């Protein structure tokens, strides 16, 4: 592999050892401390001087997200002679390489552990008001540290490459407009994971656009290929449970019909496909209200995800977007989200059936 930087180059306190990844904007090198040789890290270096701003952005974004499922940032200097970003070294493959090796899909129990890890890391990022914007298998790392893939735990799934974590319209448009259609007219690369409202330029990125990308990744995990048209995972791999089809459908949906938050997906996953008792990395999520209406009788009602105050009439948390009710109320006319106490839809004016308790 041809690289811009060379083995043995010293960058700040670290000496480059091996290039472990390269993208459109940067190379990632395994490096060791120049004195404490046993201390190894990953160092990201820009391919062009103007790309140093992505390092600065990624460092600023990820520094505020402290979670086991997010690659930690350890140091940064975007203004040095050689700009750099120092991160924890994840000793394992990317999810992309795992999917390539499992051409018909990874084992379902493993897929679910990876899926939970992605969602848990994404929930932490969203709670810190960070939208990833580039969820794809190549940006998901598995910290196996020499252990077999079958022993992977959910907390060893790590989200990386938050370079677009703060809006960069020019860069995202560049990705969308790049050579992204193969000769067979199939979507390839990053754009294949981009929500349709972003590809069309009709909306800004939000939590739901990240979740659309997670839906594409889930399909790949289960089948070894990306979704096409209206097919479901079980239409490619018949052994897939209908419960996973339903999860996929609510991720790979138009914006207004998509899950509201990563935590909402985790709650639905727990309800449809419970993790075995004592399963590694199983999330410990607060229960949602049992009826279509939050427990308004409960004093000081708070969001079970971010623990900030929530109005008893809200179906989704106004702070983090987490779903506050088990069954979301929808307007039968326009499919909008009226309040739980509304008698008429605030969007189309249709009469609404009463909430059942």
Characteristics:
two-stranded antiparallel ribbon, 357 residues, alpha+beta
Distance between the termini: 62 Å
Number of helices, where a helix is a run of at least 4 consecutive DSSP H or I residues: 9
Low-pLDDT segments, ≥5 res: 165-189, 280-299
Number of DSSP strand runs: 8
The overall pLDDT, averaged over residues, is: 82
Q: What is the helix content?
A: 25-40%
Let me know the largest β-sheet. 6 strands, antiparallel
Going across the major beta sheet, what is the strand order? Answer: 1-2-3-4-6-5
Give the class from helix and strand content and strand pairing: alpha+beta
Query: What string gives the helices and strands in order?
Result: EEEEHEEHHEEHHHHHH
Q: Overview of this structure, please?
A:
This protein has 357 residues and is an alpha+beta fold. The protein has 9 helices and 8 strands. The strands form 2 sheets. Strands 1-2-3-4-6-5 form a 6-stranded antiparallel beta sheet, with helices on one face. A two-stranded antiparallel sheet has the order 7-8. A hairpin with a 6-residue loop joins strand 5 (73-77) and strand 6. Helix 3 runs antiparallel to helix 6 (207-223). The model is unreliable at 165-189 and 280-299 (pLDDT under 50).
């Amino acid at each position: 592999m041809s690289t811009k930087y060379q083995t043995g180059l010293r960058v700040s306190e670290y000496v480059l050892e091996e290039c472990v990844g390269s993208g459109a904007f940067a190379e990632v090198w395994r490096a060791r401390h120049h004195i404490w040789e046993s201390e190894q890290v990953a160092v990201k270096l820009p391919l062009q001087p103007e790309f140093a701003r992505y390092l600065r952005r990624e460092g600023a974004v990820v520094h505020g997200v402290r979670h086991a499922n997010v690659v930690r940032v350890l140091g940064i200097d975007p203004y040095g002679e050689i700009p750099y970003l120092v991160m924890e070294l994840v000793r394992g493959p990317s999810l992309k390489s795992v999917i390539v090796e499992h051409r018909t899909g990874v084992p379902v129990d493993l897929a679910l552990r990876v899926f939970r890890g992605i969602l848990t890391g994404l929930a932490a990022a969203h709670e810190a008001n960070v939208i990833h914007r580039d969820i794809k298998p190549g940006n998901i790392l598995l910290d196996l540290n020499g252990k077999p893939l079958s022993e992977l735990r959910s907390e060893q799934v790590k989200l990386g490459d938050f370079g677009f974590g703060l809006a960069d319209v020019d860069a995202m448009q560049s990705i969308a407009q790049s050579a992204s259609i193969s000769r067979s007219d199939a979507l390839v690369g990053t754009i294949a994971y981009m929500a349709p409202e972003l590809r069309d330029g009709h909306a800004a990125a939000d939590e739901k656009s990240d979740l659309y990308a997670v839906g594409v990744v889930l399909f790949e995990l289960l089948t070894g290929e990306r979704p096409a048209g209206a097919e479901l995972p079980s239409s490619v791999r018949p052994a897939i449970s209908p419960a996973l089809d339903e999860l996929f459908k609510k991720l790979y949906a138009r914006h207004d019909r998509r899950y509201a938050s990563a935590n909402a997906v985790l709650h639905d996953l727990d309800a449809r496909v419970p993790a075995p008792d004592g399963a590694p990395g199983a999330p410990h999520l607060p229960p949602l209200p049992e009826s279509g209406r939050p427990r308004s009788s409960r004093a000081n009602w708070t969001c079970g995800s971010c623990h900030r105050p929530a109005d008893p009439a809200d179906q989704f948390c106004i702070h983090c977007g987490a779903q506050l009710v088990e069954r979301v109320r929808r307007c039968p006319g326009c499919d909008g989200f009226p309040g739980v106490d509304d008698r008429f839809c605030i969007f189309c004016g249709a009469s609404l059936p009463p909430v059942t308790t």
